[in-house]
Design goal:
Elements (H helix, E strand, L loop, with lengths): L14 E5 L5 H17 L4 E3 L2 H5 L3 H8 L3 E6 L5 H8 L5 E4 H4 L14 H16 L1
Parallel strand pairs: 1-2, 1-3, 3-4
Bound molecules: iron/sulfur cluster.
Iron/sulfur cluster binds next to helix 1.
Amino acid sequence: MVEADRCNCGGISEIGLFACAGGANVGLMSVKAAAMVSEKLGREKAALLCLPGISAEISGIIEGAKTCRAMIAIDGCGTRCAAKTLRKAGFDPVEIVLNRDCDIAKNHDLSDKAGLEDAAEYVFEAIKKIEV
Ligand code: SF4
């Protein structure tokens, strides 16, 4: 079975949120914070989009990402996997690094949610700055 080289993610949001989704507390929080903000603002305003689709050079996902007015890379730590992935694909995202910007210490306890509310608030404030 041949999978379509596209999905329904494109053209649905003013601001694309791309989370590193790494295997660490801050990695998981990058996804959760993005989802919380998208739920708060509505998916047409800010949506969690598929970073792996950018890495995999899925043309439909890259074209969809291009329709965003702005994009935010939310990384758990200074390795900045999401930001680097987007930049490698030619995008210029606003960068958020949770252990730097929100002072959340990185660990590998995937149940650790300490700092998640702060992370979501930081993303929310970053979006407000883009809108001015
Ligand atoms: S930015 Fe850090 S937490 Fe996120 S995937 Fe990369 S190494 Fe893991």
